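Audit log entry. Action: structure prediction of a protein-small molecule complex. Ligand: adenosine-5'-triphosphate. The ligand was supplied as SMILES and no pocket hint was given, so placement is left entirely to the predictor. Protonation state taken as written. Sequence taken verbatim from the request; no trimming, no tag removal. Recorded inputs:
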Amino acid sequence: MSNARANPFNSIAVHVALLTYTAIALFPVFVILINSFKSRKAIFRDPLALPDGDTFTLIGYQTVMKQGDFFLYFQNSMIVTVATLFFVLLFGAMAAFALAEYRFKGNLLLGLYLALGIMIPIRIGTVAILEMMVASGLVNTLWALILVYTAQGLPLAVFILSEFMRQVSDDLKNAGRIDGLSEYTIFFRLVLPLVRPAMATVAVFNMIPIWNDLWFPLILAPAEETKTLTLGSQVFIGQFVTDWNAVLSALSMAILPVMILYVIFSRQLIRGITSGAVK
Amino acid sequence: MTALKLSNVCKSFGQVEVLKDINLTVGEGEFVVFVGPSGCGKSTLLRVISGLEEASSGEVEISGNLVNDVPPAKRGIAMVFQSYALYPHLTVRDNMALALKQARMPKDKIAERVAEASRMLSMGDYLDRRPSELSGGQRQRVAIGRAVVREPDLFLFDEPLSNLDAALRMNTRLEIARLHRQLGTCMIYVTHDQVEAMTLADKIVVLRDGKVEQVGSPMEIYNNPANRFVAEFIGSPSMNFVPAEQLGGPVGTQIGIRPEYARITKNGRLPGTVVHVEKLGGDTNILIDLSDGLSFTSRQFGQYDIAIGDQIAIDFDDSKCLAFDSEGQRV
Ligand SMILES: Nc1ncnc2c1ncn2[C@@H]1O[C@H](COP(=O)(O)OP(=O)(O)OP(=O)(O)O)[C@@H](O)[C@H]1O
Ligand SMILES: [Mg+2]
């Protein structure tokens, strides 16, 4: 191991591989970004060229700002994503704690049942979900989306978090019980901080599909005031004409908030706060 | 008054019976050590006493009160865990104060108790640090301090020294003994370390497969084990067993001889060959293969000169050996 680390060729090879991968992964984002600053003609003439004096334009961004209620869409997406993450993490962690910590009849079955959702795509139930939302009057509200996404995110969250919660020291929880802490305090104050990296993983896994989803916003909340960003951007894509400047600008702006959320969560991923609890 | 009384305590996990009909009385101020092989139910018994596990049947009394339905925090106990189990997000001071805060004790009283405990365990230097900034020994001290501030009627220790290195283990052991003398509180201590059991205990409880095999003072258990299991389990190196008929006794019974009573002679009753010698400086353990294939250990005081392959014989005083019947009971 230490040999492999010390070997400069190995180190270079690893870096070349990782940099290549990074370049490939970032390339589409890069193309979107540069083209969002170019005029329509320039986009088609030479899609890979950087914007220069002739081709630079902010027309796309201007269109986006003018047409449609871009900031409202933005806000809707943000509300839906953040609220969903909150509920998925809260309920997922609570269910995971119960499954990991308490012995009761049907514990294993319940765990399997909750995990089943990982394998069954929620979109299969779209018609039934739509009927339910219509019946409960939730169509065209952000709650419709939040509820559906929470249901969609919970199985994986419970699965991952219960695995991590099993690893939290029993002694620590028992020490809390002997000191008179309630089960809620034990859960919120002792266990949750120790599974923070797992929570961040779950958050990242859930966040991106929700942010990018077109399916449910289109079906459950297509009204103007509940449109999400992804749905809102579709107005620029027509059957016959597509306003590429606007589409690319909207996409570029849509990347920002997810990136900010991602940075927040990934710092949690890295931070090791577990040391010193036990051993 | 009794500090702890267990009557017919049983505990099963599903089909598995882990504790079988445990009866035990512990007097005020006694230091009781539970020993037994791994998986025999020592920790489970401690958890039943603490209330972390419910007994499947039977009664647990602490200081004369039936506590079967009392939650752990209200039982008047404090527990120290093998893995320290300190709260990672709290300072040493807050770790110790937490239980008292939960019990809504006034602030000045809490501060007083924490100061007293930290003086007793000399932890004044690191009261404001977090557990992650302490060494293993310091962490275990804090864990002990956290138990001390609660001024419980009963201390429970679950292998508190197993994660410490040898030197620290010895120091902390002495510290616990001193603490017991100072506080005079009843302590129950789980270990599988012989030395801890023998040196700390007023009373040793030997457990096997969830049953109490013998209860007694360390010397009583050492000199007068109730059965072959206890005889073999207590003492290191462990007792030698030789079929009695080899020595002219009744068929089927066994004779137990402690290694330190086995003399090495030219022509004793049990001839054999030296196969291994462990020189510890203070004493010497000599492993011998007897002529009929049995292994035998002799322990000689001091540095004993003997070589592998030497033909020797073992002898012993009949008064020092114990006889066991075919069931392993003493006869
Ligand atoms: N929650 C549980 N569910 C099922 N079985 C359990 C549970 N806890 C303990 N056991 C079983 O009970 C038996 C006794 O366990 P316990 O932890 O009390 O042993 P121990 O004497 O403390 O052992 P060690 O010296 O290794 O700590 C073991 O066989 C164990 O598998
Ligand atoms: Mg144990």
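Audit: result stored. The domain at 2-231 of chain B is CATH 3.40.50.300 (Rossmann fold). The pocket of magnesium ion (ligand 2) is lined by residues B 42-43 (CB under 6 Å).
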